[in-house]
Amino acid sequence: MKKKRVRRKDPEKRAAILAAAGELFLEKSKGTISMDDVAKRAAVSKITVYNHFADKSELFRTMIEAKLNANLSFQLIEDLDGEDAFEDLVKIAKGYTNIIYSHDGLNMFKTVMAETKRDSDVPQMFYRAAVRPVRETLSKHLHKLEQQGGYEFIDIELAADIFFTLFRGDAFMRLSMNIDQEPKAEALDQFTRKVIRLYLRMFERTHGERTTSTETLAYLNQIQRFTASLEVCQPTLVLMRRSVSHPDIAEAIAATEGAANEALESFKQLLRQHKCLKTPRHSKALKALCDESVEEISASEESEIIRDSLVAGYLLQIVTQLHSSIKSAAFTATQAGLDGDSAVMAPHAEGLDALTQIAESTLSSIN
Description:
mainly alpha, elongated
């Protein structure tokens, strides 16, 4: 008995078929497209199309799923670090606006909605893959913001609805009616940021007659992160000091420890004044640098000179990051109208600037 011959499925031809189907289904309605049309556009035979897809419905569903996976920027909402509420919301919004403010996204949405009566599974698939992930991420993020203080959303799900509704105003209607062209990336980014500033101001938590401004919240978040970063640095600086033999490097490390401790106390006092008592999150970049330096120094079996040079190099990087962070916090304090806080930071910024120069000089002297 002869075995039934199984046709090998060429992945390149499958990709060509899906690309052709995507073009055709988004140009015209599904009902007007035949498998012959798809085969002709893909430059393959009709038999090849059926070898990959049992019927037009399967091809349509697979095409929608492939476009969702390829075109929607879900990676934007996978790396929320919680360090900047505004930028995290920008990332979430882009996961949504990349759908509704692109012609491909709008055409796909219209095509899917046209299938609602014929195949209810298709709109559900679109919602599960394209809309729900963004909405669930937003709801979780809003809940986290409310717990951190500064914002009061009252009803998280309603607040999420409002967030998405703000992006479906006149600009969206004009685009969906083909009155306007698809906005350029820069213009869409500016529009998104304006909407989010408006949104955050709507839900700022009030304290009596005073409202905590977005700028103040950004500043408080910044100094909380810097305070935690100073604490992260302390054990690293101790290890570095104990690992060197060069007296100048040891002295520079000891001076950095002292400056870090003084700054830590000042920042803790500022946080107490602002009644920010939650556990702050450290800077991921500085934590990664400290972890790397500890690993490298601990594993080093080189001569004292080489190890001293390694320690001095890491010291310079750490002091530079601390100096940059405190300067940024002072600038944000000024923007928020907190000149007193900025004045508290000024001597610490000057001290770290001086230590940066010392670290540079020390590193140069031993190399």
